[in-house]
Amino acid sequence: MAKDKSGYIIAAAFIGPGTVTTASLAGANFGFHLVWALLFSIFATIVLQDMAARLGVASGQGLASAMKNMAYKPWLKNAFIVLIVSAIGIGNAAYESGNLTGAAIGLDAFISIGIGPWASILGTIAIVLLWSGSYKWIETVLVYLVFIMAGVFLVTLLVAKPDIAVMFSQLLSPRLDADAITTVLALIGTTIVPYNLFLHASLVAKSSRGQNKQDAVVACRNQSAKAISMGGLITLIVMATAMMAFFNQAATMDASNMGEQLKPVLGDKAQWFFALGLFAAGLTSAITAPLAAAYAVTGALGLSDDMQSKSFKAVWFIIIVVGVSVAALGFKPLPAILFAQATNALLLPIIAIFLLVVMNKSTALGEFRNTWKSNLAGFVVVGTVIGLGLYKLIGVFS
């Protein structure tokens, strides 16, 4: 199990352009007043991904298959299938459009041909990589680029000499109001990614076969906690640099000046480096989102989850095409990315509730079923996200 890198793949999957953009907007518009939402998101991600990983190790199945197999009545099984296909399909289509839009913004800073054409080119690249099966090597390179970007953000933050007292004061003064709720949901949606639950369970189920289950669970739990915490730290650093550059300043952040936060270190090259980071983060996530959807949908429909099977390829192909189409329609890029993250936060409770049910009811789990501590943590996560979603809906209709 030591060679399994599923935890880092999950962390890389949520450090997409949505994370970079949402964290930058949160820091620029609200300073550190919304860090509470990020801290909650990291806690929630560790809790839910641990459940998904235990399910994969113990049952040898993905989350979609486990949910479907748990239903003993035909109508309930069909309801699970419809839920999984529709929820993950909608969620991943939204995510894919955000991923491609973010990466397209990055490339358009180098060669200006428009968001739509770049999204089409990137979608084609993702299709070619997934079709060939060689995406893992490319993904590794892109993940390194994302972490290099995070390093530059950290150096920038240190050079800018942040006012720790102000940051701490804002951290202790959390905000949750009509102006902040969309950004709060976006921070949650860009970190606790519903499709990652399906992706993690499937990856671990495949990589842990033939190994001691207890050892596999322990190793996976430790790796996931470290990787997800590292991803959260990157998000916090991006938020902090944006706060230093834009919060309570005359300038307003938009798609054209997001890289300004890196100027203390990179000078005139800041925008270009930021663009390269968005491209790397976007293409990495543009590969993992359709991959996760393929695992979820094929598992729900009882089809082959072999990467070379026609059904598996058909699912990720549709997700990419829909993502490209939405990205090419000309929506304003930053609201589109923010909307994709908020949409996922609203979809999350549905998936999380059924994950909790599976982790308590599935006979295949044995000793790896949820303990009362896991259930308590899960209920806190689900209850909080549902409460925030209802607050958002009430605000929309009031």
Task: Walk me through this protein's architecture.
This protein has about 400 residues and is mostly helical. It has one domain: Amino acid/polyamine transporter I, CATH 1.20.1740.10. Helices cover about 80% and strands about 0% of the residues. The longest helix has about 35 residues. The protein is globular. The model has no long low-confidence stretch (mean pLDDT about 80).
Describe the global form.
Answer: globular
The biggest sheet, with number of strands, parallel, antiparallel or mixed sense and barrel status, is: none
Q: Return Rg in Å.
A: 20 Å
How helix-rich are the residues, as a percent range?
over 70%
Q: What is the number of beta strands?
A: 0
Give the uncertain stretches in residue-range form: none
**What is the CATH class?**
Mainly Alpha
- Kindly report the average pLDDT value: 81
Relative strand content: under 5%
CA-CA gap between termini: 51 Å
Coarse structural class: mainly alpha
Looking at the overall shape, the CATH architecture is: Up-down Bundle
Output the CATH topology.
Answer: Amino acid/polyamine transporter I
Number of helices: 16
Task: Report the CATH superfamily.
Answer: Amino acid/polyamine transporter I
Please give the domain count.
1
Transmembrane segments: 7-28, 34-57, 78-95, 107-129, 141-160, 180-199, 231-252, 272-302, 314-331, 337-356, 376-394
GO molecular function: cadmium ion transmembrane transporter activity; manganese ion transmembrane transporter activity; symporter activity
Protein name: Manganese transporter
Pfam family, one: Nramp
